[in-house]
Model the fold of this input.
Amino acid sequence: MTAGPDDAGPAAPTAVPCSRCGRPVGLGRGEGYLVDIRAVADPTPPVFTGDDLSADATREIQRLLVRLRGMSPRRVADQVYRRRLFCLCNACYALWSADPFGVSRT
Ligand SMILES: [Zn+2]
Done:
């Protein structure tokens, strides 16, 4: 038995909504951009003072563990790394790329 057109499973999407305005962005038509934003916590090794080094590290570790117990794994992960993907139509991409932080808005 061969698979017919009805057995092909769900069709691949031909458009996705713009993350900003909601208008459909046709895939494979040059109608938009995939914006991939990654945020990483400061990767610089921490700076320790003499006071830090003379402090009781065990006590500090226990304090941090207590603090982490009340947080979801997702929230902990979001504090060190976060990735967001957006699909923007060409018009919204032009606005976003000209002012990604929205600082020129009044
Ligand atoms: Zn848009």
User: Anything to note?
Assistant: Strands lie at 15-17, 24-26, 32-40, 81-89.
